[in-house]
Amino acid sequence: MTADIFITGSGHTRFGRLDQSLEDLIVEAAREAIEEAQIAPAEIDAVFLGHFNSGLVPDGFASSLILQAYPDLRFKPASRCENACASGAAAIHAGLNAIRAGSARNVLVVGAEKMTHRSTPDVTKALAGAGYQNDTAEADLSFPQVFAIAAQQYAERYGDPRDAMARIASKNHENAMNNPLAHMHKRMTYEHCREVSESNPLIAPPLRLSDCSLITDGAAAVVLSADNASASDADARVRIAAAEHVSDFLPMSRRDFVAFEGPERAIRMAYETAGITVDDLDFAEVHDCFTPAELLIYEAMGLAPKGEGVRALEDGTVYADGRIPVNLSGGLKAKGHPVGATGVSMHALGFRQLTGRAGGIQRPGAEWGLAFNMGGAAVANYATILQADRI
Amino acid sequence: MTADIFITGSGHTRFGRLDQSLEDLIVEAAREAIEEAQIAPAEIDAVFLGHFNSGLVPDGFASSLILQAYPDLRFKPASRCENACASGAAAIHAGLNAIRAGSARNVLVVGAEKMTHRSTPDVTKALAGAGYQNDTAEADLSFPQVFAIAAQQYAERYGDPRDAMARIASKNHENAMNNPLAHMHKRMTYEHCREVSESNPLIAPPLRLSDCSLITDGAAAVVLSADNASASDADARVRIAAAEHVSDFLPMSRRDFVAFEGPERAIRMAYETAGITVDDLDFAEVHDCFTPAELLIYEAMGLAPKGEGVRALEDGTVYADGRIPVNLSGGLKAKGHPVGATGVSMHALGFRQLTGRAGGIQRPGAEWGLAFNMGGAAVANYATILQADRI
């Protein structure tokens, strides 16, 4: 890491079933981030969009939609970054590279997705495209089925994860109650999540409905700035202490899925770059697309040894009042998962957390945060360490 | 531009109607570029894929397919860049940023598209998605219709461009005769291209079939290296003297289409960065998706004043034996236009041209080349200046 780069503004639409178009969502989040950064649109040197699409909307040239936010964005370079469910973090990392490269001093990054206008089977099919298509055994799998395999393999290797899965679902729904931007504000007890019932059916055994993230519309944005590029004072900016990206082979047949090697490498590299350990973290926003993913991420983060992720729940570590709360926002599980927006949302909310503006989900005095955004079944793995700049 | 960056290897599948899958095409081009660069796969620090897709293939997570080329690419960061028909140049520019940022010393960039397995109406619809979808007047336009509007507006402002259009089509088909990688090896006389006939029907007046680029499968790749990162000697590398990207508003209603401001800005900025003028160029590979685009690009390049682009044809400048041959490869018109591959192909063939390995389309002693790749109707505009490193 060379010269410091900061988040200096954030934008975040409400997540949910929204009437706005993809363009509307992008423009709303972009404007809020620019206003929060107190920067003139003309001072933005480049824009990046995280957006999955995969047939969900007809917009085949979404990068340029960011320019719709302000006349002064005309002629700025605009690019779309796509890495399945990690498209948002991909855009953040591209923005960081543009600043480090010296080709930009201020960058606007927006992540957005429009999903709820499509039927659930359509969305499931679009998302399934992010699996490996050239192997007949894998091409037909939906992502609930993929993470059901993870849960099954976890059970065989380490023991039944269903208890941990239900705790995770219940925790994240509880957290979302305090996040007005979240898609779903509905408590779910551990007991509800643990049992198969009419209101919590099996989706792909052992995954119940309560183990799956939501189909959601939404957008999030951040302004990234080189040191001295913006007028923001230290109370209003957050340092990017590390940003690491590790990709793995797409076919599940070429790797040990439950080993979660890609996420572990990305997160551990990020700790090393930032010069911290897991114990320094004050919170983490991580990719709980399905509850087994959050469980495996606890282990990748080093919160617990392999196969013992449930400990981080049992000892209270990851709860809102614990030592390292995970997904205070409600996570993909309850905040929702508008695919391209998710990674940017993690950074936007981390920025608000570390500048004391996280409202109902504020963790007082937080100094270090982790954002972990994942594409596919541990294929594109992006870990960012955010640091408060108060000191 | 800080420290120099070089192209040190190239890969290029044949363009055409191919049996290979998207993955096969990506892997073939990637391996050829790595071999040509004489680099170990482990020395590649990051990979970038230019790929449009837009529903043409089910692969929803294409970035990781590059890793399929070599076991040693596992865990390298892989990203997909998408900017409609400029997705290839978008990937090149992202690769340059990664090197300039210091996060990579050697980068593998692949561009690929698989199109011919789909019907022409399907492909036309997928491409039309790259127009503006939130204006009913624009959302229904196909790209032949969009560039027909360009030709009509050009006619109203400057005079009938159909003569120039026919010359361009004929020239590019003639050039492709000497490029074994081209999709179509078929001479087309000026007379054939000029007249509407059974074999050259009107597609969108005044565009005839001969004014439209091809639906093509193919992939291209380059290795980009920081100075001193590779063992390549100067005869086998090409300097990136400039790489500029300018995006414009997507709605045509928000700009003067025929003014081609985005392309002009990108190309003129590239000249300035490289410290050259148009007269220094020895060749150019430019985005002739439709013949009026090539005509407008002559003017954006400064080969002729506004409205007088035909002069560059009349005085022979842009022909194979002229002062600045344009599209020696045959261009999108006859080499073909596998969307995500196109921008990378321009760089790969520019590399071969400037290292004396362009075979039948070699321009002896070439020192400077321009690659201009365009997304949409002058929306995403990427200009790169390539320089031989022989001196």
UniProtKB/TrEMBL annotation, chains A, B:
* One GO molecular-function entry: acetyl-CoA C-acyltransferase activity
Q: Which PANTHER family match?
A: ACETYL-COA C-ACETYLTRANSFERASE, ACETYL-COA C-ACYLTRANSFERASE
Q: Which residues form the Thiolase N-terminal domain?
A: 6-184
Its taxonomic placement starts with: Bacteria, Pseudomonadati, Pseudomonadota, Alphaproteobacteria, Hyphomicrobiales
For this protein, the record's InterPro entries field holds: Thiolase, Thiolase-like, Thiolase_C_2, Thiolase_N
> Domain of life, per the record?
Bacteria
Q: What is this protein called?
A: Thiolase domain-containing protein
- Pfam families in the cross-refs: Thiolase_C_1, Thiolase_N
Where would I find the Thiolase C-terminal domain in this sequence? Answer: 253-387
